[in-house]
Amino acid sequence: MNILGGFVNNIGGFVKDRLPKNKPAEFQKIDGKAIAETITKEIAAELTDLKAKTGKAPGLAVVIVGSRGDSQTYVNMKKKKCKECGIESYGKELPETVSQEELLKVVQDFNADPNVHGILVQLPLPKHIDEATILSAISIEKDVDGFHPLNIGALCMKGRDPLFVPCTPKGCIELLDRMGVEMKGKHAVVLGRSNIVGMPAALLLLKRDATVSIVHSRTVNPEAEVRRADILISCCGQAQIVKSKWIKKGAVIIDVGTNAVPDASKKAGFRLVGDCDYAEVSKTASMCTPVPGGVGPMTIAMLMRNTADSVKRAYLKE
Amino acid sequence: MNILGGFVNNIGGFVKDRLPKNKPAEFQKIDGKAIAETITKEIAAELTDLKAKTGKAPGLAVVIVGSRGDSQTYVNMKKKKCKECGIESYGKELPETVSQEELLKVVQDFNADPNVHGILVQLPLPKHIDEATILSAISIEKDVDGFHPLNIGALCMKGRDPLFVPCTPKGCIELLDRMGVEMKGKHAVVLGRSNIVGMPAALLLLKRDATVSIVHSRTVNPEAEVRRADILISCCGQAQIVKSKWIKKGAVIIDVGTNAVPDASKKAGFRLVGDCDYAEVSKTASMCTPVPGGVGPMTIAMLMRNTADSVKRAYLKE
Questions:
Q1: Which residue is catalytic, options B31, B81, B122, B240?
Q2: In the prediction, which pLDDT does B142 show?
Q3: Is A165-296 the same fold as A55-150?
Q4: Per-residue confidence band for A2, with pLDDT thresholds at 50, 70 and 90
Q5: pLDDT grade, residue A123 (50/70/90)?
Q6: How far apart, in whole angstroms, are the C-alpha atoms of residue A205 and residue A201?
Q7: What is the rounded CA–CA span in Å between residue B294 and residue B32?
Q8: How far apart are CA B165 and CA B172, in angstroms?
Q9: Can you tell me the distance from the alpha carbon of B301 to that of B263, in angstroms, rounded to the nearest whole number?
Q10: For a designed S-S bond to B125, which of A97, A199, A246, B129 qualifies (C-beta 3.0 to 4.6 A apart)?
Q11: What's the burial of B140, exposed, middle or buried (CB within 10 Å: 0-12/13-18/19+)?
Q12: Is A263 assigned a catalytic role?
């Protein structure tokens, strides 16, 4: 066998794969904000209907420990979105110094409360509290964040369905679906392997029959790996690391990164950018989410979706 | 930006990666049988030591339903290996017609038995029994097969460690370790995505910092994907589908496939072959496991390892 011949054939294969078969379509922004608003309206209509039939309102409990500014901002956004959807918000703000036992008690009380259908503990938690212990304590039937290991385990097993899928990766797949992007048989690359985004995103893409590569900080040549992606979900938290030359012509990009970069022209002194250089990648990609206004609004919409699903499941059981 | 220039550079990258940097070393067979024997001796020595100190013997319970010939063969091999390691075997053979409740009762009794440190329910189960229900009923502290969704969930989360890792994928990683194969930063391809081998193998490779691609029946060009592997774990159950031209020069192959092909020269009328054409891939790979004598013996050795770890954990708790 001629080994060099093998190489040459192989190169041919790669080039052929990468050349656009048709004239590339216009680049499209994936408008996560608009899609999330549509979903919010769908959920509000469903829940109005449910309330008319059952007389009961779904509830979401948000537990926040300490006073991190960004956590407060997220929590307020979640409360506002609950109101739009017709979901009751139950909040519990605990001081930074709260003990693990006290926090566990709060979770257990919400577990027992029939008015609460979803419980969310805002992360990160202070260092003296074991995150795994707290997350595992949330009743799996109210784990709207989908972080319980039983939910993650089910996500990764064929023939099992988790009760809840983590909101951010669920939002990524929902964006692909609403944009009509077929995943089956596509080469999907997930850049980043966090518990809350990268890993579950990879598992979801696999459930949708994509060929999945997981690329991370120890990957020797991330650019070469990403360049093979028909679909890229980027969640590595590196400001604008992904440039046009990283992107296969016509690829679809979901940019989960939300990175603050200094910007003297802004009142806050910074602005938010994605893992991808949007202006740059839009030259090669066929679609990309902007930051902000892409995945962010979808995460909250999916939290509402999970809570709505939870209340429906609870009412079906009654 | 010159797009064609980008392609050319990229091709250059692929070619460079694939050309051997040094004269390739001699091809090496990965002798799973010999390595498994070494591990068995290590476990036997550990357990003799433990027995001398505590006076107690570890126990493994094997539950078998029906009379499938291959299940019986596996179970007998497991019993024999238990004896070699100094592990008590507890067996329960149930008829094909056993009800799910009766089988659950057997599992619960073993859960409660302090002499039993590992419980294994031989799969597949008859169709009238829900596999997921039975596997989830095994106490997570005795789940030496590692199939409980809590174990799988922990396997896939950073910062969590499962109590047990499924035996076959654990054996694959052990083979790589014992052969001195570095996984960090390598491109690993898992061919197949089953719950019991492919998925957990991918998760283990990721925990060891490999860049991981999961290739399966819906992958458009599996050959091109496999050809990028520095390390290939093949578990697709397709007899000798992987040929020399699928393999990157110098790659390391762990062949999990055990496929029966007709062979008139054999008394049984068939012989077992891997997913890889061993004679063929040995021309390009640097190492490969044979079938039989590769991963098979390691699976049983890892079951002994998990049982030994379980008994040690139980004694530490007493």
A1: B122
A2: 97
A3: yes
A4: very low
A5: confident
A6: 6
A7: 4
A8: 11
A9: 29
A10: B129
A11: middle
A12: no
Number of A to B CB contacts under 8 A, please give it.
Answer: 139
Q: Report residue B2: phi and psi, to 5°.
A: -85, 105
The CA distance from B102 to B83, in Å, is: 28
Q: Where are the domains of chain A?
A: 55-150, 165-296
CATH architecture of the domain A165-296 equals: 3-Layer(aba) Sandwich (3.40)
Please name which of A216, A156, A209 lies closest in space to residue B206, comparing C-alpha atoms.
A216
> Residues A134-148: pLDDT tens digits?
999 999 999 999 999
Nearest residue on chain B to A227, alpha-carbon basis: B10
Picking from A159, A225, A227, the nearest residue to B211 by CB comes out as A225
**Residues sharing a CB contact under 8 Å with residue A54, sequence separation 6 or more, in sequence order:** A315
- Going by C-alpha positions, the residue among A65, A114, A113 that lies closest to residue A92 is A65
Which value does ipTM take for this structure?
0.88
Specify the pLDDT at position A10.
35
Cβ atoms A278, A272 nearer than 8 A: no
Which pLDDT does position B25 carry in this prediction? Answer: 65
- CB count within 10 Å of CB A237 equals 17
How do residues B123-165 score in pLDDT, each as one tens digit? Answer: 889 999 999 899 999 999 999 999 998 999 999 999 889 999 9
Average confidence (pLDDT) over A71-95: 91
B149 closest CB neighbour out of A154, A209, A215: A154
Nearest in space to A80 (alpha carbons), one of A312, A300, A233: A300
Q: Cβ of B213 and A216 within 8 Å?
A: no
Would residue B113 show up in a list of annotated catalytic residues for this protein?
no
**Quick check: helix, strand or coil at residue B246?**
helix
Q: CA-based Rg of chain B, rounded to a whole angstrom?
A: 21
Q: Provide the shortest C-alpha distance from residue B234 to chain A (in Å).
A: 15
Q: Could you give the angle at which helices B295-317 and B32-54 cross, rounded to 10 degrees?
A: 20
A138: which 2 tokens?
A: 């949330």
Report chain B's terminal Cα–Cα distance, integer Å: 68
pLDDT reading at A19 higher than 70 = no
Yes or no, beta carbons of A212 and B214 under 8 Å apart: yes
- Name the residue facing B157 among A10, A11, A195 (closest C-beta): A195
Where do the DSSP E strands lie in chain A? 28-29, 59-65, 88-94, 118-121, 187-191, 211-215, 231-234, 252-255, 259-262, 270-273, 287-288
d(CA A166, CA A145): 5
Spatial contact of A188 and A180, defined as CB atoms under 8 Å apart: no
Give the distance from residue B130's alpha carbon to the nearest chain A alpha carbon, in angstroms: 11
DSSP state of B163: S
- CB-CB under 8 Å, B185 with A220: yes
> Side-chain half-sphere of B176: how many Cα atoms within 13 Å?
25
Within a 10 A sphere around the Cβ of A182, how many other Cβ atoms?
14
Tokens 């929590």 sit on residue: A75
CA proximity to A304, closest of A30, A37, A32: A37
Catalytic residue status for B23: no
CA A214 to CA B208: how far, in whole Å? 13
| DSSP classification of residue A260 | E
Q: Is A55-150 assigned to CATH 3.40.50.10860?
A: yes
